[in-house]
Amino acid sequence: MNPRMIMIAAAVVASAASTAFSQQGEVPKPDGQMPPAVSMADLAGLSTEGVSAREVNDYAPGRYTGELTPSPPHADINAKKGVVVFWKNYPYRFIFSHEASYCPLLELPSGAAMCSQFFEGNIQGDPENHKGSAELFNIQGRKEKNSFIDVIESGPQRVWVRWNYFAVNKDDDSQPRLHGTEDYLAYPNGLIVRRMTYESLMPDSYFAYSQQPVELFGVAPVGKPIKDLFPRDSQHGDYLTLAALDVYGDRQYEIFWGENGEVRRNGDDATLTAISSSKGRALVMPFRDSLLFMVFGDASGFPADRSDLVDHCTPGVKSGCEWKQGLWDHWPIGWLNSQASDWKPGSPYPYSFGSIGQFFIPPGKRYTAFVKDYFGNAKDMDLNHWTANRVFYLLLGAARDFDEVRRIGRNWLDQGPNCARPESIAHLR
Predict the structure, then answer these.
(1) CB contact set of 72 (below 8 Å; sequence gap of 6+)
(2) Using CA atoms, how far apart are residues 255 and 244, in angstroms rounded to an integer?
(3) Which phi and psi (to 5°) does residue 167 adopt?
(4) Cis bond upstream, residue 332 (ω within 30)
(5) Which has more pLDDT, 320 or 166?
(6) Tens digits of per-residue pLDDT, 21-73?
(7) What is the distance between the alpha carbons of residues 410 and 425, in angstroms, rounded to a whole number?
(8) Closest CA to 284 of 309, 314, 319
(9) Most buried among 44, 45, 58, 108, using CB within 10 Å?
(10) Please, are residues 83 and 75 in contact by the beta-carbon 8 Å criterion?
(11) Per residue in 166-209, pLDDT tens?
(12) How far apart (Å, rounded) are the C-alpha atoms in residues 312 and 324?
């Protein structure tokens, strides 16, 4: 597909997304030309009556201050270009960074952040001979023609940012695999609703579909080990780094990391399966400063009988890859099949870490052996067709504790189909 046809396809899907919002009383109201970009230092001096968005020209994830050339790989045009969403009453920021392919980061004042990924294409091939086929976290995926954003509303009552991207092969972007369109609407109460959908651009190819729309990653600032970011467990001396919650019950699955590479979990495979089966789920990064979370469930397009949560960290877990402590200083967010580089102590770069994620599954099935199940499900075209062109919603934000995550999540999902309306989050706190 040539670049002109790619842009036409983007316009068609963006129009479809607008129509869907219009059917719910939402009509895009472009603000017109954005004000000139400012520096991050200048941004710190700006204020808002509620929530606002502003373009910046010198943002880098994880408090990185070094040069972006010649290494690590950098985006075309302006690698430090970004759009920052900021609030009157909340200290964190929501950032669309060009260097991160505009995949947004919910960032705390310390520079620690949560990322929830995007529609990553199914991996091509078999376990013994496979390769990543459709990604953004690579040099090709960082190009502006493959990933770009539009600010539809810049505040102060609401911010609306639309993200279009083409997941591409890391070696050749001449044939994009799939096209994702995501809308993020932020309200003055510090919450964000995420609307996501995609279409395959190679409809006969299983690897041009996605069964993995949500993957929980963290970004750590330069020089900050895990022990500086997360609360220490008084009994075991390790650090609570990742968690999955049943927002309608007290089930909780927790992953702890030690200072010497140890991984421990509080919960077992049955616990994770039970949470996956709940009508409402949350993935959480419990940073010391604040818990960053995402909520999704049956009412928001993630039916429990087609969803499974996967722990990629814990040795012996049935569902995941057993990465143990996945730490990558690939710039700025690492992934094993797209030019990843393992983080090493003393690295001058910020690093990404994780993960625990959500996968779509055939109705009623669960992950029991990740590699076997993943590669088998990837070739299930009935499942692939089910994921394509559907609409999925998530709620993103920060909270004081797990109880607040559950309360906010329940109040959102209890609205049923109305949780798909952006204003469904406006009065949750």
Answers:
(1) 329, 330, 331, 341, 349
(2) 9
(3) -75, 125
(4) yes
(5) 166
(6) 433 434 454 555 678 999 999 999 999 999 999 999 999 889 988 777 655 55
(7) 11
(8) 309
(9) 108
(10) no
(11) 999 888 899 999 999 999 999 999 999 999 999 999 999 999 99
(12) 7
φ/ψ of residue 395, rounded to 5: -115, 125
Backbone angles phi, psi at 8, to 5 degrees: -65, -45
- For the chain, the domains span 1-429
Write out pLDDT tens, residues 98-131: 988 999 999 999 999 999 999 999 998 887 887 7
DSSP 8-state code for residue 260? T
Tokens standing for 345? 């102590």
Q: Which residue has the tokens 């502003």?
A: 54
In this structure, is the dihedral angle defined by the CA atoms of residues 219, 225, 228 and 233, taken in order, positive or negative?
positive
Residue length of the chain = 429
Q: What distance in Å separates the CA atoms of residue 305 and residue 67, rounded to the nearest whole number? A: 47
> How many C-beta neighbours within 10 Å does residue 337 have?
18
Distance CA 105, CA 96 (A): 7
Pairwise CA distance, residues 272 & 311, whole Å: 8
* Phi, psi angles (nearest 5°) of residue 244: -120, 135
Half-sphere exposure of 427 (CA within 13 A, CB side): 4
Give the mean pLDDT of the chain: 88
Residue 300: closest CA among 385, 405, 407, 411: 411
